[in-house]
Amino acid sequence: MLQEKLGALKRKLEKEQMVRLALPIKFSFKDHDVLDFERFLSFFNWSLHDVPVQIDLTTCQSANYQALSLLVLYAWKLRSQDCKVSFKIEDKSDIGASFMWINMGARGLFYILTNPTQQFHGNKFKPLFAVRSANDFKVVIESAESFTNGFNVEYENTFRYIIGELLYNTLEHGKVFGGQSLKDIRIPSIVQFTWYRKTNEIHFIIADVGIGIKKHIEQAYPGQESDEDAIKLALKPKISGTFGANDPYKNKNNAGMGLYISSNIIRRLNADMHVMSGNALLHISPRDVTGRTLATEWPGAFVHITIRLENNPAFILHKIMQEFRDAANTEQVTADHSEESTRFYVGINNHFGRYAEDKDAAIKFRDRRLFKAIEGGLVITIDFDDVVSSPHSFLSALLASPIESLVCKPTSESKLSMRHRR
Question: Within a 10 A sphere around the Cβ of 407, how many other Cβ atoms?
């Protein structure tokens, strides 16, 4: 009897505290045939923590599958923030958001979150996927190929390449874990495809709630001024947010060609790509690349692509990819030369070992190399990667005077940054 009373009291308190988020009548990226991500993203409240949340789909009469799929990530993110999340749907509805939610198998989202080998089970023409492993990668690729069966083999290869590169990016860089409330399990990325028969178009979205493009890129290219700048940089050739133990400016660990080539293929296909991360939205169209800063944000990143299917594309994949690679290499040689001439990289482990404790060696290096770099107006990066110990006397001998000289000469073009990665 006491247990029943306590249970009833708990339910009453949850009902009183519940935050109800009702979908608008229309829940879609498009508004009068214009993509409006600003309006759409204003629905998401990322500040909710440790409260019961109900997401009401019954209020929505018209929706878009890719837009609805982002609710899955939103619910998972709220769960990681200790929210108890539920959905209100109309089981017998044959229209609107409730029907579409059931149609793509989204009702199983919390079971899939906690069972890393499970997938959504929905309509084969509106598939929704959780992506957190190489096996999930394979399942999504196989599904993507089913949309292009019977088309020119080069078209199939092209579509597979684009999907593969975007999946690789979200697997590698969209990684985020759920914290104590979810026992540190990985929050999957999601992929949703929709084939529109009347226009013979495929619309798909690949999304995550990871660290976002800016924070990822800044691991190798610190000091990005905005999310928009970071996205534009990520689309350049040979750009990656990861690098090895050697000088990151001379020996990038990742070729970084995937997004560059994919975005250029999208333009050649007369398709459209939208990249959203943080508060920035970048639109890659056949005509140009435009970006803008929104008042709303998306933690992590998502890519939305629209491709019209064609039986005879006017190019062969390996030839166009070689064209892009050649252009990228030319651009990178110029960029590398400029970068090397303006930067001075110091790997502490390379010069002083894992136990950087030799004060005299620090003074000699400072006088011989650091002051010269400052006089030359170079951007100086001090990398402490893999350094176990570095006492105050060593650091003072190496850095105190150079820092003082920079402070005393505010007009100097030199900049000093320090990095420690584990």
Answer: 9
pLDDT tens for 72-99 read 999 999 999 999 999 999 988 788 999 9
- Tokens representing 30 are 């498009």
CA distance 285 to 193: 20
Question: CB under 8 Å to 312, separation ≥6 — which residues?
Answer: 152
Q: Please state the rounded mean pLDDT for residues 293-302.
A: 94
Which of 7-21, 105-119, 247-261, 376-390 has the lowest average pLDDT?
Answer: 247-261
Structure tokens that stand for 176 in this block: 């985020």
What average pLDDT score do residues 399-403 get? 87
Q: Where do the DSSP E strands lie in 233-338?
A: 272-284, 289-308
**9-315 classified as CATH 3.90.1150.10:** no
Q: Find the farthest-apart pair of alpha carbons in the chain and give their distance in angstroms, rounded.
A: 81
Q: Helix 258-268 crosses helix 153-173 at what angle (to 10 degrees)?
A: 140
Q: Which one-letter DSSP state was computed for residue 366? A: I
Of 324, 326, 421, 419, the closest CA to residue 379 belongs to 419
Mean pLDDT of the 286-302 span: 92
State the CB neighbour count (10 A cutoff) for residue 4. Answer: 8
Where is pLDDT greater, at 340 or 274? 274
Q: Does residue 314 carry a pLDDT above 80?
A: no
Question: Do 189 and 302 form a contact (C-beta atoms < 8 A)?
Answer: no
Domain boundaries, the chain: 9-315, 343-419
* Structure tokens belonging to residue 134: 């190489």
DSSP letter at 418 equals E
Long-range contacts of 153-159, Cβ-Cβ distance < 8 Å, separation of 24 or more: 154/313, 154/315, 154/316, 154/317, 155/309, 155/310, 155/311, 155/313, 157/317, 158/265, 158/269, 158/313, 158/317, 159/307
> Average pLDDT, stretch 351-377?
86
Residue whose pair of structure tokens reads 């990530």 in the numeric block: 73
How far, CA to CA in Å, does 106 sit from each of 139, 217, 242, 269, 402?
Answer: 17, 32, 34, 31, 58
Query: DSSP state, 146?
Result: H
CA distance 100 to 69: 10
- How many degrees, rounded to 5, is the angle at CA 386 between CA 397 and CA 255? 115
- Is 392's pLDDT higher than 70? yes
Those residues with Cβ within 8 angstroms of residue 251's Cβ, 6 or more apart along the chain or in another chain = 243, 244
Average pLDDT, the chain: 81
